[in-house]
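Dear colleagues,

For the upcoming journal club I promised to circulate an example of a predicted protein-ligand complex. I picked one with zinc ion because it came up in last month's discussion. The inputs are reproduced below in full, followed by the predicted structure.
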Amino acid sequence: MRRTIRLAMSFLASLALSPATSAAPVRDDPLLRPIEADYAARRFLTPAPPVHVFGNTSLVGFGGLSVAVIRTSAGLILIDGALPQSVRDVEAHLRALGLSIRDVKLILSTEPHYDHAAGIAALERDSGATVLAGAAAVKTLRAGGLDPGDPQGAMLDRFPAPRKLRAVSDGQRIHLGGVTVTAVALPGHTPGSMGWRWRSCEGNHCANIVFTASINAVSTDDYRFTRHPELVATFRASMAKLRALPCDIVLTSHPDNSDGDRKLAAFLKNPHPNPWLDGDGCKKAADGFEARLNDRLAKEAKP
Ligand SMILES: [Zn+2]
């Protein structure tokens, strides 16, 4: 008995003194700590190959979450940052396209929710880029995702806050290396939601590309959009705005809001004709958002 105790004691002592494994210890990086790991892996981070979509524009994100990159003569512009646990994948996707995170000068944010923005702080650190977002979104990003006015606010995870943030306003033009990206305020899903649009050319063929923020009516269970007609009006105005944009290619922050999975599969099979080229893409995405809003309002109206 005594011997067993002594052995157990010495085993415990050896545990305390020697490293847990012979492998190099994994340093905990606060900016890469996974958020909602299982849910995110199933819903957002399903694998997708990085693809060159059109002209200067590529996708370097995932099956359930878009991250776009625009090449300019003065460096790269990244749109959205996905999650902390996917930062290394985004960086690997850039490398696979012959690009480097170190060349990213600007990171544009569509909405300050963890699925799109929680990886931005690490991507900002790795690149030295400046992060641009709508004024209300900048406030929320600074607070690591906390916005008490957000209908989803109470159920959302907090995340590392980016440091070098700059607010942009609706219609503001951002210039980098011969490319102009215009900010398109699309409030509703969050007050600071921002879409981004630019022109891209392949030889003589130029296309208007829109990366739209989600205009989805999502909330905690107890929230009633029917009791917030002003917010419903805001949603409808954003949908009308998206519909009216010059738009040859729409990219949505979640690909399934614009049939992105089908477009990607078709593109991988045969890139000509380019499945992303669709003059009705923004209209269809807006219609999809509107159908969901109407559904939600109808459900709430049921006794
Ligand atoms: Zn969201």
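Two points we might discuss: The first helix runs from residue 2 to 17. Residues 1-21 have pLDDT under 50 and may be disordered.

See you all on Thursday,
B. R.
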